[in-house]
């Protein structure tokens, strides 16, 4: 889940004061609410790859959000023909995934891996 946090700069400036004064609502956003189409999923995963700084576990956490949006771990495991418990462990963000597992998950989510320069 992506959460909006209260941010106060070093000089004490509160960046959310203007929103509170205008009574603009600030609420939690769940990434899986926005991951409905293959294009949205691809954009989300590409952003995760850009941010993962060599740690594939972050990518797997992003795939967990995608799996939640696509019917859950059980549904993705069924589509990918992967054991549900094994998939859950892979998507925990605590393990480095195998490339074969990543490609199966991507395919089950309706996207494919590509490389570019």
SSE blueprint:
Elements: H1 17-21, H2 38-51, H3 56-69, H4 73-80, H5 84-90, H6 99-108
Q: Low-confidence parts, pLDDT < 50 over ≥5 residues?
A: 1-7
Main β sheet profile = none
The helical percent reads 40-55%
Integer average pLDDT: 78
Radius of gyration over all CA atoms, rounded: 17 Å
**Portion in strands:** under 5%
Structural class: mainly alpha
Number of strands: 0
End-to-end Cα distance, whole Å, is 31 Å
Coarse morphology: globular
Task: Please describe the structure with a list of short key phrases separated by commas or semicolons.
117 residues; mainly alpha; 6 helices; 0% strand; globular; disordered N terminus
What would you say this structure looks like, in words?
- With 117 residues, this protein is an all-alpha fold.
- The protein has a domain at 31-108.
- It is built from six helices and no strands.
- Helix 2 (38-51) runs antiparallel to helix 3 (56-69) and helix 4 packs across helix 6.
- It is globular, with a radius of gyration of 17 Å.
Short description:
The chain has 117 residues and is mostly helical. It is built from six helices and no strands. The protein has a domain at 31-108.
